[in-house]
Design brief:
Layout (H helix, E strand, L loop, with lengths): L1 H20 L12 H10 L3 E8 L2 E7 L5 E6 L6 E6 L2
Antiparallel strand pairs: 1-2, 2-3, 3-4
């Protein structure tokens, strides 16, 4: 019984980690170019500092239209935002 509880606890702990680390799950053949994301963001008033790949997503470091410094993650196929952190 104790072994089952330990196994379930470990599965829950590592299962959540696996889901959190994969924000985007898109085949590379379906990715849009970084320049397309940059043009989209600049069209929305963002000042893009850099765009790189992280966890299967595009990760953009930028200043958004509100003037906030952000680290934002985008789905590389749809270019929709999947996560954003506002930096202090």
């Amino acid at each position: 019984m104790r072994q089952i509880i330990i196994t379930l606890g470990l599965a829950a702990a590592f299962g959540g980690t696996a889901l959190a680390s994969e924000k985007c799950n898109v085949a590379m053949a379906d990715w849009q170019p970084r320049e397309t994301l940059q043009a989209k963001l600049e069209g929305e008033g963002w000042k893009v500092r850099s765009i790189k790949t992280e966890d299967g997503c595009y990760e953009a470091y930028a200043i958004n239209a509100k003037g906030e410094k952000v680290e934002a993650y985008f789905n590389p196929q749809t270019l929709e935002s999947v996560d954003m952190k506002i930096e202090d």
